[in-house]
Design goal:
By secondary structure, the chain is mainly beta. It has 6 helices and 32 strands. The chain has helices at residues 20-39, 55-58, 130-133, 262-265, 314-317, 376-380; strands at 51-53, 82-85, 94-97, 116-120, 126-128, 141-147, 156-161, 166-170, 176-178, 196-202, 211-216, 228-230, 233-235, 245-246, 248-252, 258-260, 271-272, 274-280, 289-294, 300-304, 310-312, 333-336, 345-348, 358-363, 366-369, 385-391, 400-405, 425-431, 434-437, 452-458, 467-472, 475-482. The chain has a 4-stranded antiparallel β-sheet, with no helix packed on it.
Length: 522
Amino acid sequence: MQARICDLSNFRAKFRTHSATSLVVACGAAASALAWISLAGAAPQGVTITFEDIAGRAGVEFVLRNSATPARRQIEPMVSGVAIFDYNGDGKPDIYFVNGARQPQLDKPDPTYYNRLYRNNGDGSFTDVTLAAGVRGDGFATGVAAADYDNDGWEDLFIAGVNGNILFRNRGDGTFEDVTARAGLAGPAGVRKPWSVSAGWFDYDNDGRLDLFVVNYCAWDPEKEHACTIGSVRTYCHPKYYDGLPNNLYHNNGDGTFTDVSVRSGIAAHIGKGMAVSFLDFDGDGRLDAFVTNDTVPNYLFRNLGDGKFQEVALESGVAFNNDGRAVSSMGTDARDIDNDGREDLFVAANESETFPLFRNLGKGLFADITSGSGVGRQTRSSTGWSVGIFDFNNDGAKDLFAACGSIDDNVEEFSHRSSRQRNLLLANAGAGRFEDASALAGRDFQKAAWNRGAAFGDLDGDGRVDVVVSRIGERAAVCGTLPPRRTITWRCGCGESAATATVSAPWCTLPALPAASSGIA
């Protein structure tokens, strides 16, 4: 059973030392990666990828609100996910955006803060059906994951947030009901809810029912916000000032309820600063594993042992750190086969100057960091990425890389020569283990710089090409339709400047991760 995962993602980087053994493994992985790059065949002739932002004429008016304040509260840049899913079963993918909330109340007092559901009319336009469907939401939302958890044929929604998570069950009549408490997902009474950033659905025990993985970020108290500056300029604080949190795993009981198995499964034993999750069977044993990106601390790879338990193996598998042995500000992630060898690889967004890690699955439980050799390192160094996606945008048989980009701080101009608004990033698969920056050729709309965040992917118009939907802080979202390919790679999309995003381009620019689309900020 396949699930759609929406990710949101806001992230930073890491730190930890390697043992001698882990260094040997890392060297072996690097050597394998270089051999793969040098021995692969010649790159195929490129087919242009071009995107056009159709949001305005399509009737998609969503604006992402983060309620930014002079106090620079940590939750403000960590918005917000997008999902592409078919809520009414008419065969046409619809779009759902999650939104921030008023501060300090963390509520949605007026329509500008509502989450938004847009129904695909099938003629290139969308209709806002949020209120009729009952999915405006509540609280400061960050991520979303869509899937049919109760096997009734209708896709449901799980929303991750700072002060509340929500499970919306799809009734199948165009409306949803909030079943969070009834399903056992509300959490214990009287206990401060952990800040959840993203989530994903996957069947970890192969019982035919989708289970729920919730990614938690850090312990944040609005009454105890830190004050951080660069020179005299107030900025958002580094994650090191906040304690990390364990993630949650909920087992689907098959009766509409879930059991928290975080402790029993071993997931809760690992404290991180999670940003996003991708699912893959990295070791080919027939069981889905979970890769979790962490902000400035080592990533996690939870190997499914098949007995309801997971073993954390990121270090020995080569995905805890980058090739320099450093933990980066890992944010959005996607897991797909970039080289058509039958094994799922990993792409991760990170902060400016860190580069975006690309891990190639070597088999036998090992990955190689090919970020530098593939060209991805050089082409992502100046970007800050959030949601990402691995998709074949030009239908040439080779999957490309997308990242939604925008600086963490919206006032970067006050303390550096850089711009806080960034262009999204499109890296075309050139074959032979190489990726080339095709952003400049992706169309006029794609050149627009913005504070891009969530991204989601799917074929919105049924033309056989993957589109991208991207949420943007303070301005209308981009719905990037993929134009018929030319003999190169181009995109026309109203997405940021100098970045790329995965799991969303017109997901239109999303969320962390869909299986027909892709993963992030959730």
